Give the backbone structure.
Amino acid sequence: MSSKGWAAFAAMSLIWGVPYLFIKVVVDDGISPVFLSFVRVAIGAAVLLALAWRAGVLAQLQGRWKWVAAYAIVEITLPFPLIAAGEQYISSSLTAILIASVPLIVALLAIRFDAAERATGLRLLGLLIGFAGVVVLVGIDVAGNRDELLGTALILLASCGYAAAPLILKRQLANVDPRAAMGASLLIASAVLAVPAALTTPSTTPTSEAVLSLAVLGLVCTALALVVFQFLIVEVGPGRALVITYLNPVVAVILGVLILDERLGAGAIAGLLLILAGSWMSTDGRLPPGLRRRSTAPTESRQARA
């Protein structure tokens, strides 16, 4: 992975660890999952399409609309409402943890669709260790609770969309400017969600916290995130790009504990350690270039003195 790839990886690990907190704030305010998703993608579409138009890159979409639409459905239109619906039943921390199953689903899909992304050796071991961390985090808390089982099922279904979408992007949209590709995808998702959103418009004025959360979800967690994510996929490939889903739960759990008073037990701490280990191994067990240079410098210096 290049230094740019590591920088994008770090940014996405943070940016996509944040939305689960804001989604929880919005749905707990009584706003429907579909309306939340529509507002989020509409804000993102407006921002990115304006930037794409100003940069003159919209022409790159010619002949690619069917793939843009396919990406919009599996990455945005289905997962966004499913995640918001799932968070009506489970915590923001558990939601992020379940999304960490995405790289494993990618590995399964790659067996059929993308040989270059098949996880083998150290990467496969890292994926399995990371998934073991997810299992430890979830533990037995969900078992026997019908509402939490429903929420878990909705989140895992969204994870399948998140796993398939990068394969479409890598094969069909890698050469399209991310402002144009992501802006068009969000526009299509907005159009699909518009009618059901209109039918579920809030009957009361949302709180200021919910309005602020919607703004952050649209501007940062959607518009900015999708641009950075496309760059990351092109730079390092879908498999490595989706390892961010092993780090997102760390951010989400910390925010859930500190802000939403969600409980973090010993099993969750053990799971987080496994997730971090799996993430590192899934990127071939390499340090970022800058850290690697610093870590090897003392050895090189000692050898020179010898």
About this structure: The radius of gyration is 20 Å.
